[in-house]
Amino acid sequence: MSQAIIDVRGVSKAFGGVIANHEVSLKVEPGKITGLIGPNGSGKTTLFNSIVGQYPIDGGSILFEGQEISRMNVQEIARLGMLRTFQQTRIFSKMNCIQNLLISVPHRKAAWRNMFGKHSPELIEKAERLLEFVGLYSKRKLVAGSLSFGQQKLLEFAMALMNEPKVLLLDEPTAGINPTLINGLIDRLKRANQEFGITLFVIEHNMRVIMNLADQIYCMSHGELLASGSPDEIRDDQRVIDAYLGAH
Ligand code: ADP
Ligand code: MG
Prior knowledge:
Layout lengths: L5 E10 L2 E11 L4 E5 L6 H8 L7 E6 L2 E2 L5 H7 L1 E4 L11 H6 L18 H13 L15 H13 L5 E5 L7 H17 L3 E5 L3 H7 L2 E6 L2 E6 L1 H5 L2 H9 L2
Parallel strand pairs: 3-8, 3-9, 6-7, 7-8
Antiparallel strand pairs: 1-2, 1-4, 4-5, 9-10
Adenosine-5'-diphosphate binds next to strand 2 and helix 1.
């Protein structure tokens, strides 16, 4: 196995008396799509928050490209090339799509604005290319608040791509999306992985989606890692089936 790009080692995290993650260990391989599944409340989002530096962890360590990052904050980790998207989208609803992409690049790149405060043509062109990539080019001048929820998720995905991350963590990208948009989104995620070489780590509740998308899947239950394997192995794993059945 090649060196993991994300190496989670025995990570624990509690909120008061609630143990959200208990000694979780997993690896995300570079260039691959890794899935994270598990019933609601099993600690998936908490693990993402810990990986990207949103929360301090209580125990264990997290390595990114071999470097310890568990004491870094979100901005420091983003600068290393790891970003995440949220279960609920975080877009600027009164700005148009292009403006949303332009303000999503880090502040150090604000120097790309010229002396009149205008963004460089290169940056605008990049924003337009990415809107084309996610299928929102024809909506580029519309305010983001006028888009459907699914389109807002595609916009948020394009905003993350503006930063050219090495790794993108996606928290339930298809949740709440119209089924007709889901296949388009899966296709875009695969293309971002294959064409841009972005490593993806995806929390997904929809089994069909994650089986279709991921190279490797981890399953969590009650804050602990329950199983890992290829989509076929996970599909047939009795512990995974029981965890899902038990949750309903
Ligand atoms: P999942 O994403 O798998 O649905 P979460 O990581 O959101 O699970 O939650 C795991 C557990 O941790 C749940 O019991 C949840 O209520 C608790 N939890 C998550 N975030 C917080 C928080 N900020 N404060 C208190 N409890 C939290
Ligand atoms: Mg969650």
